[in-house]
Amino acid sequence: MRIARILQHLGLACLGLACLGLAFHASPALSQAYPARTLHFVSAFPPGSGADIIVRYFADRIGTLTRQSIVVENRTGANGNIALEHTLRSPPDGYTIFIHAANAIASNSHLIKNNRIEMSQVQIAATINQQGFMVAVDRNSPIQSIQDLTARLKSGGEKVSYGSSSNQGLIAGSLLNEMGGFNAVFVNYRTSADSLNDLASGALDFAFIDPAAALAMERQGRIRILAVMLDQRLPFRPDIPTLAENGYPISIVGWFAAVVPAATPAEIVDQINGWMRTIIATPEAEKFLADTGAVPWTNTPAEGQARLLKDVETWRSYIRAAKLTPQ
Q1: Are residues 152 and 78 in the same domain?
Q2: Quick one: pLDDT at residue 166?
Q3: Pick from 66, 119, 73, 78: which is nearest to 99 by CA?
Q4: pLDDT of residue 175
Q5: What is the pLDDT of residue 275?
Q6: End-to-end CA distance of the chain
Q7: Which residues contact 43 (CB under 8 A, 6 or more apart)?
């Protein structure tokens, strides 16, 4: 019996040593430094579009910074909600990062009927820029200024139409109608580029276009930019007036951010924030942002999160003023 007990104790000891060995073997994998594998970036717009260019720029620079492979996934639709839902369903480990206009996330909370996303599920890891949508017409349009556009809106009634591919454009046009007593009809487009043919043919009178796309289209000689929806003129394009200067105090400031699931560990969120700050601080990134009609804008994750929650309430007031209902 004594020999049996000794053998039993030896067996338990060996089992304990084996488990300890397994723990030591597993430890490096569990404590592996982040990031240790491919990073996935999510874009809510088609490849080559203005917003997608921003996603790919920062994804590429983070790939260089971290020396990790990068995959950009385009998940379009619902003004970014499909891409956001995909991100929030992903493991909260920092390997899926959604780069998008955070103000669109805030506006979707009011404009999308039966929206399943709660802001408590969303974590802003880093803010990137601030930008204002631009009011544009076809390059050959007789409309040369906001004053000309106002005259067209007054005389055309419901025959005047405006287009956009985002909530910002929809709200801006609705507020413009309210302020001026106009009746312009909204036309929704999948991307800003999709509105170009209708602008050229005269089927569409004007459009609200994201600045990256608008400046690119202007360089191509496709459109004329009449105004920007910001509190003040862009420092790198002081020739573009604001809507407020022309009697329409509509300032809907957009801002891009890196977004991850709320359960992502704080140290990983801080690391993503650090990457973005490092990239944005470079002269190359400053020029890139200027070319896309934006100015650099960095904050801590807590500050970015606070701005998102503030924008949820701001968009509530915009939507009430524009008399819109969720669709």
Answers
A1: no
A2: 85
A3: 73
A4: 93
A5: 98
A6: 79
A7: 51, 52, 55, 56, 72, 73, 74, 75, 83, 99, 100
325 near 174, Cβ under 8 Å? Answer: no
pTM over 0.85: no
DSSP for 13-66, written as a single string: HHHHHHHHHHHHHHHHHHTPPSP-S-EEEEESS-TTSHHHHHHHHHHHHHHHHH
In a domain, 4, yes or no: no
pLDDT tens string 72-90? 999 998 889 999 999 999 9
**149, 225: one domain:** yes
Residues of the chain with pLDDT under 70: 1-31
List for the chain the helix, strand, coil content (%; round to 5). Answer: 50, 20, 30
Q: What is the reported pLDDT for 88? A: 98
CATH number of the domain to which 161 belongs: 3.40.190.10
Exposure of 320 in the CB half-sphere (CA atoms within 13 A): 6
Residues 45 and 114 in one domain: yes
Domains identified in the chain, total number: 2
Last residue of one domain, picked from the residues 246, 269, 297:
246
pLDDT digits (tens, 9 = 90+) for 229-262: 998 999 999 999 999 999 999 988 899 999 999 9
In a domain, 139, yes or no: yes
Asked which of 204, 229, 246 is the last residue of a domain, the reply is 246
Q: Which H/E stretch holds residue 262?
A: none
User: What is the span of the domain harbouring residue 179?
Assistant: 134-246
What is the reported pLDDT for 204? 96
User: What is the domain-level CATH number for residue 317?
Assistant: 3.40.190.150
In a domain, 15, yes or no: no
Position 323 scores a pLDDT of 81
Which amino acid would we find at residue 69?
Answer: S
